[in-house]
């Protein structure tokens, strides 16, 4: 296995993962939608768009951020409610629900994720009040590690940067890769708007690209 150590790629994956984390923030609303738009990714997605379907799904997300109409904003809000809140059974956004037979919150993997955060010196954002294994938090953690490794590499410390990147690779291998793709497929299947279908695809493609970076 050979992990790619290029500053631009590390920052690009960190930016893309952070953007995806915001798209699946547990309290996603119009304010957060505007924050996503202000991140500056709408003009140039940082990762290669490998096929026409990916380009179309990316456009569905970024176009909604660039020029959202009142009608489409309302549709996104309704889709968010249907997907993640109810009244029909929502898509579970926690690793433990996907990976435990009982499909309950706070499984062993939740504690493992919490420990991984602590060991890496990662503190969860103040505006997320969810178990540590929520998809948005796992993506935020991976983004932080990729950006940190890029910064360390820029400082001329390749061995330390490789250590940060190995932490990210191990976490993805032991946690995110084991459930996020299933979760994102379910979101894409049930989504009523191109926005959430595009968001699910864009996030999955970002994780596939991350695996290529890790040399899987």
UniProtKB/TrEMBL annotation:
This is Molecular chaperone TorD. The keyword Manganese does not apply. It comes from Telmatospirillum siberiense. The keyword Ligase does not apply. InterPro entries: DMSO/NO3_reduct_chaperone (IPR020945), TorD-like_sf (IPR036411), TorD/DmsD_chaperones (IPR050289). Keywords: Chaperone. It comes from the Bacteria.
